[in-house]
Amino acid sequence: MRFYEQVLGFVPIQRPSSFKFNGAWLYNYGIGIHLIENPSIDDFDTIVEQLPINPKDNHISFQCRDVGLVKEARRHGDEVRDGGGRR
């Protein structure tokens, strides 16, 4: 959670209490992220050989025009807004 909050600037929001599994919902920049906790890492296959990256596979990405600006803003605890402004 710290990565999403402190590095990316997302804010936790309330998620439905009816879910029977641990997780978190976060929101900022007009988008939401839903995290689901997997209690057993053994449920995942161990990667034995390096596979090529498939850009159509499930993933999340973040874009910015100036990565230096984003790093500097996050270092100072600022939020970077679309268009490059800081708050």
Automatic annotation (TrEMBL):
Top-rank taxon, per record: Eukaryota
PANTHER family: OS04G0538900 PROTEIN, PTHR46142
Stated name of the protein: Glyoxylase I 4
Lineage: Eukaryota, Viridiplantae, Streptophyta, Embryophyta, Tracheophyta
